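dumping this here so i dont lose it again. seq + smiles for pyridoxal-5'-phosphate
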Amino acid sequence: MAKGRGTLSLHGVSFANASTAAPATSVPWWSTTLLEPEAEAVAQAVRDRRIAMGPVTETFEREFADRLGVAHALAVPSGSVALLMALLAHGVGPGDEVIVPNRTFIATAHAVLMAGATPVLAEVRADVPLLDLDSVAARISPHTRALLPVHLNGRAVDMEAVNALADRHGLVVIEDACQALFSRRGDRWLGTESDAGCYSLGVAKLITCGYGGVVVCHAESTRDRLIALRNHGVLDTSKPGYGSLGFNFKFSDMMAAIARVQLERAQEHGDRVTEVYRRYRAALSNWDGIQMIPVDIEAGEVPLYPEVVTANRASLRAHLADGSIQCQDMAPSLHLSPHLAAANPSPAYARSERYDESGLILPGGPSQPLANVDLVISHLQKWSHRLMGPEGAGT
Ligand SMILES: Cc1ncc(COP(=O)(O)O)c(C=O)c1O
């Protein structure tokens, strides 16, 4: 990362420079940092001429798999590619339907479309934006091939129930855990309880190397198909020939060098985003105008983003912008995209639509100074007082 003062902005994501805290009046919605150890690690990879996919990637994959207690982990270019490869490795393709939640980042559905299959959108629960299993059961058809639950913002989908439903209908289960690395329910890591789990190493994730993704699985046969898919159908590079369809979905040792250092910081990052969430939750409890969308941090869920709902989103966004505070609208429900709505002609997604109108992500991230969170809270309080009077802000 470049040296200097202030914040850097990349693709709309601002993140504080490693050596300087963000100025008090300028709060990015997301803050993460790469420090000297990451810089040294990638420099060392270059010095060692480890720039393509090789032993550093292998070491990262081993460490990642060990941390999650799974047999296999494969590093790939992004979380989106991880999802696509997991689907392809299970033979999902044209004519197949895959059930995905209507509330997720669009990558989940695009992976299904890229595999040539059809994403079928299930409604979310009333309490949290996670797959509603009654809605899933209602959408299972003779064409359904797979279920793709999403552990949105570190919240755990009930995998026992998902797997039981899948068993009854003979379906593949792939977990989208792109927002749920090292989030857990009890003693189980999210993303490790199905045929394959997919993680993202993008900038606005728990750990990052710029872009990147990881697929984890338990079965050796799945691992072999993923390896072949990642490299044009080559399972064993010592043997000539191309055994099956594949592509170039390889990782690089330079990315792995950074990712290995970030992996060591995962706990620290998880602790910080949890503390950020806890602070907002304590401050916003019992306010009329704004509520946190619950994450069960007591059960081990890691809230990557502090998400809220407010009926006055535009007003709140404008108020925070006046204080040089960034925030983000939550991603739109999938049924609002015409190319996804086509396969879902008569949607009834009232629960999802609640977030389209009122869902907002407050400033957070693994390097967000807690002083920034306090500053945001004081701005929220002023906004709330103006809107509803002191009682509305719970003070
Ligand atoms: C739920 C979810 N799925 C998939 C992805 C795709 O990951 P990537 O951006 O690494 O392709 C993301 C990324 O934001 C995500 O949030």
